[in-house]
Design brief:
The protein is an all-alpha fold and 161 residues long. 55% of the residues lie in helices and 0% in strands. The protein is globular and about 45 Å long.
Protein backbone atom coordinates (compact mmCIF):
# COMPACT_ATOMS: atom_id res chain seq x y z
CA UNK A 1 0.00 0.00 0.00
CA UNK A 2 1.45 3.39 -0.96
CA UNK A 3 1.61 6.33 1.43
CA UNK A 4 -1.30 8.18 -0.19
CA UNK A 5 -3.60 5.16 0.07
CA UNK A 6 -2.52 4.50 3.65
CA UNK A 7 -3.22 8.11 4.67
CA UNK A 8 -6.67 8.01 3.04
CA UNK A 9 -7.42 4.80 4.94
CA UNK A 10 -6.41 6.37 8.27
CA UNK A 11 -8.39 9.57 7.63
CA UNK A 12 -11.48 7.62 6.62
CA UNK A 13 -11.25 5.34 9.66
CA UNK A 14 -11.19 8.39 11.94
CA UNK A 15 -13.97 10.19 10.07
CA UNK A 16 -16.29 7.22 9.66
CA UNK A 17 -15.58 5.00 12.64
CA UNK A 18 -14.66 7.56 15.25
CA UNK A 19 -11.56 5.69 16.39
CA UNK A 20 -11.11 6.34 20.09
CA UNK A 21 -14.35 8.28 20.49
CA UNK A 22 -18.05 7.73 20.06
CA UNK A 23 -19.32 8.60 16.61
CA UNK A 24 -21.98 11.19 15.85
CA UNK A 25 -24.74 8.65 15.23
CA UNK A 26 -24.28 7.02 18.64
CA UNK A 27 -24.00 10.41 20.36
CA UNK A 28 -27.37 11.62 19.07
CA UNK A 29 -29.21 8.28 19.02
CA UNK A 30 -32.37 8.23 21.12
CA UNK A 31 -31.69 11.69 22.57
CA UNK A 32 -35.02 12.56 24.21
CA UNK A 33 -36.79 15.48 22.53
CA UNK A 34 -37.59 17.07 25.88
CA UNK A 35 -33.91 17.21 26.86
CA UNK A 36 -32.43 18.60 23.62
CA UNK A 37 -32.68 22.16 24.89
CA UNK A 38 -32.13 21.47 28.59
CA UNK A 39 -29.39 23.48 30.26
CA UNK A 40 -27.17 21.87 32.88
CA UNK A 41 -25.63 24.17 35.51
CA UNK A 42 -21.98 24.88 34.71
CA UNK A 43 -22.26 23.58 31.14
CA UNK A 44 -22.34 26.31 28.48
CA UNK A 45 -24.19 24.40 25.76
CA UNK A 46 -27.36 22.41 25.28
CA UNK A 47 -27.49 19.32 23.09
CA UNK A 48 -29.14 21.44 20.39
CA UNK A 49 -26.27 23.94 20.52
CA UNK A 50 -23.77 21.13 20.03
CA UNK A 51 -25.65 19.34 17.23
CA UNK A 52 -26.15 22.60 15.36
CA UNK A 53 -22.53 23.63 15.88
CA UNK A 54 -21.20 20.25 14.75
CA UNK A 55 -23.33 20.46 11.61
CA UNK A 56 -22.49 24.03 10.61
CA UNK A 57 -18.77 23.77 11.33
CA UNK A 58 -18.42 20.53 9.37
CA UNK A 59 -20.50 21.98 6.53
CA UNK A 60 -18.22 25.02 6.46
CA UNK A 61 -15.13 22.80 6.29
CA UNK A 62 -16.63 20.77 3.44
CA UNK A 63 -17.79 23.79 1.44
CA UNK A 64 -14.43 25.51 1.94
CA UNK A 65 -12.81 22.54 0.18
CA UNK A 66 -15.47 22.15 -2.52
CA UNK A 67 -16.20 25.78 -3.39
CA UNK A 68 -13.40 28.27 -4.10
CA UNK A 69 -14.08 31.50 -2.25
CA UNK A 70 -16.71 29.89 0.01
CA UNK A 71 -17.87 32.49 2.57
CA UNK A 72 -17.74 31.14 6.11
CA UNK A 73 -20.29 32.18 8.72
CA UNK A 74 -19.36 35.06 11.02
CA UNK A 75 -17.11 33.83 13.81
CA UNK A 76 -18.13 32.88 16.44
CA UNK A 77 -21.80 33.95 16.32
CA UNK A 78 -22.56 32.26 12.99
CA UNK A 79 -21.49 28.88 14.29
CA UNK A 80 -23.96 28.62 17.19
CA UNK A 81 -27.78 28.75 17.25
CA UNK A 82 -29.45 31.52 19.20
CA UNK A 83 -32.10 29.17 20.62
CA UNK A 84 -31.43 26.59 23.34
CA UNK A 85 -33.65 24.01 21.64
CA UNK A 86 -34.70 23.15 18.10
CA UNK A 87 -38.08 24.48 17.00
CA UNK A 88 -39.34 20.89 16.78
CA UNK A 89 -38.22 17.31 16.24
CA UNK A 90 -38.05 17.86 12.48
CA UNK A 91 -35.43 20.59 12.88
CA UNK A 92 -33.30 18.29 15.05
CA UNK A 93 -33.62 15.46 12.51
CA UNK A 94 -32.78 17.79 9.60
CA UNK A 95 -29.51 18.81 11.25
CA UNK A 96 -28.69 15.21 12.17
CA UNK A 97 -29.25 14.12 8.55
CA UNK A 98 -27.37 17.14 7.17
CA UNK A 99 -24.38 16.34 9.39
CA UNK A 100 -24.35 12.74 8.15
CA UNK A 101 -24.70 13.85 4.52
CA UNK A 102 -21.83 16.34 4.81
CA UNK A 103 -19.67 13.74 6.55
CA UNK A 104 -20.37 11.43 3.64
CA UNK A 105 -19.39 14.19 1.23
CA UNK A 106 -16.10 14.79 3.01
CA UNK A 107 -15.40 11.05 3.09
CA UNK A 108 -16.16 10.78 -0.63
CA UNK A 109 -13.55 13.44 -1.36
CA UNK A 110 -10.96 11.72 0.84
CA UNK A 111 -11.79 8.35 -0.74
CA UNK A 112 -11.39 9.67 -4.31
CA UNK A 113 -7.84 8.92 -5.54
CA UNK A 114 -8.31 11.69 -8.11
CA UNK A 115 -8.44 14.25 -5.29
CA UNK A 116 -4.99 15.46 -4.28
CA UNK A 117 -4.85 15.38 -0.49
CA UNK A 118 -2.27 18.17 -0.42
CA UNK A 119 -3.35 20.49 -3.24
CA UNK A 120 -3.14 24.05 -1.91
CA UNK A 121 -6.17 26.30 -2.12
CA UNK A 122 -5.96 29.12 -4.70
CA UNK A 123 -6.28 31.77 -1.97
CA UNK A 124 -3.36 30.30 -0.04
CA UNK A 125 -3.09 29.00 3.49
CA UNK A 126 -3.22 25.38 4.53
CA UNK A 127 -6.59 24.60 3.04
CA UNK A 128 -5.73 21.20 1.66
CA UNK A 129 -8.14 18.28 1.74
CA UNK A 130 -5.90 16.49 4.24
CA UNK A 131 -6.00 19.53 6.54
CA UNK A 132 -9.79 19.76 6.19
CA UNK A 133 -10.21 16.08 7.10
CA UNK A 134 -7.93 16.46 10.13
CA UNK A 135 -9.77 19.60 11.21
CA UNK A 136 -13.14 17.82 10.95
CA UNK A 137 -11.81 14.82 12.91
CA UNK A 138 -10.41 17.04 15.66
CA UNK A 139 -13.40 19.40 15.87
CA UNK A 140 -16.02 16.66 15.75
CA UNK A 141 -14.33 14.53 18.40
CA UNK A 142 -14.00 17.50 20.77
CA UNK A 143 -17.67 18.46 20.58
CA UNK A 144 -18.90 14.86 20.51
CA UNK A 145 -17.09 14.43 23.83
CA UNK A 146 -19.04 17.39 25.16
CA UNK A 147 -22.28 15.86 23.90
CA UNK A 148 -21.49 12.55 25.60
CA UNK A 149 -20.71 14.36 28.86
CA UNK A 150 -24.00 16.23 28.55
CA UNK A 151 -25.87 12.96 27.95
CA UNK A 152 -24.37 11.51 31.13
CA UNK A 153 -25.20 14.62 33.18
CA UNK A 154 -28.79 14.45 31.89
CA UNK A 155 -28.99 10.74 32.76
CA UNK A 156 -29.26 9.56 29.16
CA UNK A 157 -27.52 6.25 28.58
CA UNK A 158 -25.07 5.98 25.71
CA UNK A 159 -25.33 2.76 23.75
CA UNK A 160 -23.37 1.50 20.78
CA UNK A 161 -19.95 2.55 22.07
Amino acid sequence: MNTDTALRKVLLASLEEGGAHVGFEAAVKDFPAGLRGRRVPGIPHTAWHLVYHLWIAQNDILEYIRVPGHPSPAYPSGYWPKEDAPADGREWERKVRAFAKDLGGLCALVRDPGEDLFRPRPEGGDGSLARAALLAIDHNSYHLGQLIDLRMLLGIAVRDW
